[in-house]
């Protein structure tokens, strides 16, 4: 059994898609074992996205993530790290496959790629680090 950190990002919360996204996650069979609405500070976000420091999208990404609360979710299931990223779809909502969260619900008109509704940890190491960061 694996655990992963899922975030419903500020665009998802603001668009009132939390229930819709959670329904897709639960329908797949993954189990929510912790959940909270969080307004993260800059320090936490810079740590969360440390691998992207120095990239051109880093600062706009942090600013976007500061723009409103996110829903942080601890999710459990068999191969849930890979499985949730498959449910989420690829990074850019414009080209994310239909049937995925980003492909079906991501708005691509007039928005930037960072507004892609969700985050999911990408490895067991990232999941452990990110779960500690968001859930203490
Ligand atoms: P995530 O970490 O959020 O689950 O998504 P990901 O693996 O698909 O994307 P990653 O490459 O880790 O990038 C993290 C977030 O940064 C924003 N991003 N913007 N070119 C760009 O403007 C750009 N590239 C990435 C997205 O919000 C992405 O989810
Ligand atoms: Mg990533």
Automatic annotation (TrEMBL):
<feature type="binding site">
    <location>
        <position position="85"/>
    </location>
    <ligand>
        <name>ATP</name>
    </ligand>
</feature>
<keyword id="KW-0479">Metal-binding</keyword>
<dbReference type="GO" id="GO:0004550">
    <property type="term" value="F:nucleoside diphosphate kinase activity"/>
</dbReference>
<dbReference type="GO" id="GO:0005524">
    <property type="term" value="F:ATP binding"/>
</dbReference>
<feature type="binding site">
    <location>
        <position position="116"/>
    </location>
    <ligand>
        <name>ATP</name>
    </ligand>
</feature>
<dbReference type="GO" id="GO:0006183">
    <property type="term" value="P:GTP biosynthetic process"/>
</dbReference>
<keyword id="KW-0808">Transferase</keyword>
<dbReference type="Pfam" id="PF00334">
    <property type="entry name" value="NDK"/>
</dbReference>
<comment type="similarity">
    <text>Belongs to the NDK family.</text>
</comment>
<keyword id="KW-0547">Nucleotide-binding</keyword>
<keyword id="KW-0460">Magnesium</keyword>
<protein>
    <recommendedName>
        <fullName>Nucleoside diphosphate kinase</fullName>
        <ecNumber>2.7.4.6</ecNumber>
    </recommendedName>
</protein>
<feature type="binding site">
    <location>
        <position position="57"/>
    </location>
    <ligand>
        <name>ATP</name>
    </ligand>
</feature>
<dbReference type="InterPro" id="IPR036850">
    <property type="entry name" value="NDK-like_dom_sf"/>
</dbReference>
<feature type="binding site">
    <location>
        <position position="102"/>
    </location>
    <ligand>
        <name>ATP</name>
    </ligand>
</feature>
<feature type="binding site">
    <location>
        <position position="9"/>
    </location>
    <ligand>
        <name>ATP</name>
    </ligand>
</feature>
<dbReference type="InterPro" id="IPR023005">
    <property type="entry name" value="Nucleoside_diP_kinase_AS"/>
</dbReference>
<feature type="domain" description="Nucleoside diphosphate kinase-like">
    <location>
        <begin position="1"/>
        <end position="136"/>
    </location>
</feature>
<dbReference type="GO" id="GO:0006241">
    <property type="term" value="P:CTP biosynthetic process"/>
</dbReference>
<feature type="binding site">
    <location>
        <position position="91"/>
    </location>
    <ligand>
        <name>ATP</name>
    </ligand>
</feature>
<dbReference type="InterPro" id="IPR034907">
    <property type="entry name" value="NDK-like_dom"/>
</dbReference>
<dbReference type="InterPro" id="IPR001564">
    <property type="entry name" value="Nucleoside_diP_kinase"/>
</dbReference>
<keyword id="KW-0418">Kinase</keyword>
<dbReference type="GO" id="GO:0046872">
    <property type="term" value="F:metal ion binding"/>
</dbReference>
<feature type="active site" description="Pros-phosphohistidine intermediate">
    <location>
        <position position="119"/>
    </location>
</feature>
<keyword id="KW-0067">ATP-binding</keyword>
<keyword id="KW-0546">Nucleotide metabolism</keyword>
<dbReference type="GO" id="GO:0006228">
    <property type="term" value="P:UTP biosynthetic process"/>
</dbReference>
């Amino acid at each position: 059994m694996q655990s992963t950190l899922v975030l419903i990002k500020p665009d998802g919360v603001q668009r009132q898609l939390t229930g819709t996204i959670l329904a897709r996650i639960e329908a797949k069979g993954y189990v929510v074992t912790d959940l909270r609405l969080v307004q993260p500070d800059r320090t936490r976000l810079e740590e969360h996205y440390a691998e992207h420091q120095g990239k051109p999208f880093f600062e706009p990404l942090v600013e976007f993530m500061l723009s409103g609360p996110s829903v942080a979710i601890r999710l459990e299931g068999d191969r849930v790290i890979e499985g949730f990223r498959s449910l989420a779809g690829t990074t850019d909502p414009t080209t994310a496959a239909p049937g995925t969260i980003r492909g079906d619900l991501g708005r691509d008109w007039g928005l930037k790629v960072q507004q892609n509704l969700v985050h999911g940890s990408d490895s067991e190491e990232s999941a452990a680090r990110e779960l500690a960061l968001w859930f203490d």
